C-alpha cells in the first residue's frame, strides 16, 4: 500500500529483466482447443496383434468330390485380441479356385473389415492330425500387404489326392480336415499433421481391452467386492452385470436384501486363480490360461453363464480328445451341457469303438456310457 508506483522506464527495464530469466516449463496436462498454438507435429503408430485360429471342416472328401471348381466354404469371422475391430476369415476352395488348378485345394486368409484400408500380415497355415497336433511345417508369408476385401494364400495349397490319402494324416477318421492358422497383423496409421489440438484425438478401439483391464481390482473406482474362497477381488457392478446373467442376478439380490451401495458377493465353488482369469475375460474378452485350466474355466463359464468363454473351452477340449480320455470328455460334456463337445466325443468313440473295446481299462466305461453315446449322436 505504501510502495511507489513504477514509472514507464522502470516498468520497461523490469520487463526486459523478466524476459531474460530462464524458464522451466511444466507439461500441460490439458488445454482449451480454442487457444491451441499453431505448432506442427506428426506421429505414426503401429499396432501388432498375433493369434492362432483353428478351423475344422467336416465331410471334406465329399466336398472335394461334389463341389464345383470355384465354389468355396468360409469360416466364421475372427479378430486378434489386440485388433478387435479388424475382421478376418478363412476361405477354402475344395476343388480349386479356377479350372486350371481343379486338382488342388485353394486356401486364403481374407481381410474382411476394419478401419485400416490395408494391413500387413505374417502367416503360416498348418494341418493338424486327429490328435490335434501339427504334422507339417506349413506354408508361410512374411510381411504381405493385404487390402480390405482381399486375401492372401495359396491357389495350390495341396493336391486333393494327397489329402485323400489317409497315410498323410490330413483327413481324420470322421472325414474332417483341421487347419491351424498362425498369423500376426501389422496395422499402421498416421495421426494427421496439423495444429496441436489434434492431440485430443481419441485412441483406437484396439486399446479398449487393455485399458479396461487397468480398472480390474482397482479400489479407486470399484463399487463391489467378490469374495472367492476368502480372497477379496474388487470389481465394477456395471461390467459384471452386463457380461454375466448370473452375476447380474446376484447383484440385484444383494442390493435388494442388504441395501448396500457396495455389495459383496461370495463365490465358494471357483478357484481364486481361475476367477482372476474369468475376470480378465469379462473385462477384456481375453483368456491366457485356456490350455492349462480348460476344465476349471469350463466349470466357471457354466456357473456364470459366460457363453463365449464356454464355447472357447469346448473348442479347446475338442482338440484334445483321445482314446484314453474320450469317455471322460463325454461325461464332462453331459455335466456342463456342452453339446459341441458331447457330439465330438460321441463320434470319436463311435469311430474307435472296436479298437477301444480291446483295451481292458476302457471296457467298463463303454458299458456304463453306451446310452449316453447313443443319445449324444443325435445332438444337432
From TrEMBL:
<feature type="signal peptide">
    <location>
        <begin position="1"/>
        <end position="26"/>
    </location>
</feature>
<dbReference type="InterPro" id="IPR002083">
    <property type="entry name" value="MATH/TRAF_dom"/>
</dbReference>
<dbReference type="GO" id="GO:0030163">
    <property type="term" value="P:protein catabolic process"/>
</dbReference>
<dbReference type="InterPro" id="IPR008974">
    <property type="entry name" value="TRAF-like"/>
</dbReference>
<feature type="domain" description="MATH">
    <location>
        <begin position="50"/>
        <end position="183"/>
    </location>
</feature>
<protein>
    <recommendedName>
        <fullName>BTB domain-containing protein</fullName>
    </recommendedName>
</protein>
<dbReference type="InterPro" id="IPR000210">
    <property type="entry name" value="BTB/POZ_dom"/>
</dbReference>
<dbReference type="InterPro" id="IPR011333">
    <property type="entry name" value="SKP1/BTB/POZ_sf"/>
</dbReference>
<feature type="domain" description="BTB">
    <location>
        <begin position="222"/>
        <end position="291"/>
    </location>
</feature>
<dbReference type="Pfam" id="PF00651">
    <property type="entry name" value="BTB"/>
</dbReference>
<keyword id="KW-0732">Signal</keyword>
<dbReference type="Pfam" id="PF22486">
    <property type="entry name" value="MATH_2"/>
</dbReference>
Amino acid at each position: 500500500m505504501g510502495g511507489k508506483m513504477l514509472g514507464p522506464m522502470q516498468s520497461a527495464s523490469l520487463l526486459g529483466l523478466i524476459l531474460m530469466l530462464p524458464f522451466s516449463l511444466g507439461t500441460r496436462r490439458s488445454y482449451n482447443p480454442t487457444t491451441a498454438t499453431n505448432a506442427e507435429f506428426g506421429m505414426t503408430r503401429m499396432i501388432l496383434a498375433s493369434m492362432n485360429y483353428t478351423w475344422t471342416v467336416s465331410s471334406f472328401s465329399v466336398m472335394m468330390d461334389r463341389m464345383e471348381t470355384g465354389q468355396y466354404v468360409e469360416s466364421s469371422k475372427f479378430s486378434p485380441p489386440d485388433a478387435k475391430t479388424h475382421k478376418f476369415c478363412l476361405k477354402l476352395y475344395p476343388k480349386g479356385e479356377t479350372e486350371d488348378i481343379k486338382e488342388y485345394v485353394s486356401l486364403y486368409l481374407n481381410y474382411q473389415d476394419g478401419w485400416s484400408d490395408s494391413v500387413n500380415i505374417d502367416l503360416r497355415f498348418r494341418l493338424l492330425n486327429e490328435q490335434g497336433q501339427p504334422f507339417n511345417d506349413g506354408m508361410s508369408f512374411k510381411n504381405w500387404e493385404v487390402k480390405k476385401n482381399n486375401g492372401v494364400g495359396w491357389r495350390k495349397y495341396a493336391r486333393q489326392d494327397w489329402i485323400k490319402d489317409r497315410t498323410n494324416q490330413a483327413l481324420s477318421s470322421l472325414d474332417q480336415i483341421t487347419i491351424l492358422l498362425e498369423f500376426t497383423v501389422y496395422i499402421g496409421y498416421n495421426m494427421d499433421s496439423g495444429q496441436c489440438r489434434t492431440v485430443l484425438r481419441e485412441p483406437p478401439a484396439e486399446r479398449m481391452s487393455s485399458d479396461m483391464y487397468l480398472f480390474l481390482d482397482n479400489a479407486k473406482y470399484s463399487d463391489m467386492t467378490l469374495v472367492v474362497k476368502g480372497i477379496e477381488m474388487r470389481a465394477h457392478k456395471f461390467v459384471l452385470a452386463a457380461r454375466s446373467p448370473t452375476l447380474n442376478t446376484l447383484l440385484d439380490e444383494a442390493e435388494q436384501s442388504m441395501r448396500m451401495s457396495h455389495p459383496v458377493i461370495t463365490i465358494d465353488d471357483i478357484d481364486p486363480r481361475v476367477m482372476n482369469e474369468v475376470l480378465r475375460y469379462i473385462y477384456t474378452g481375453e483368456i491366457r490360461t485356456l490350455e492349462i485350466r480348460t476344465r476349471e474355466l469350463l466349470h466357471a463359464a457354466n456357473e456364470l453363464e459366460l457363453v463365449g468363454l464356454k464355447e472357447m473351452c469346448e473348442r479347446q477340449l475338442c482338440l484334445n480328445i483321445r482314446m484314453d480320455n474320450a469317455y471322460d470328455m463325454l461325461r464332462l460334456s453331459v455335466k456342463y451341457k456342452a453339446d459341441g463337445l458331447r457330439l465330438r466325443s460321441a463320434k470319436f468313440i463311435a469311430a474307435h469303438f472296436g479298437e477301444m473295446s480291446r483295451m481292458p481299462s476302457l471296457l467298463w466305461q463303454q458299458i456304463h456310457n453306451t446310452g449316453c453315446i447313443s443319445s449324444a449322436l443325435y445332438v444337432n
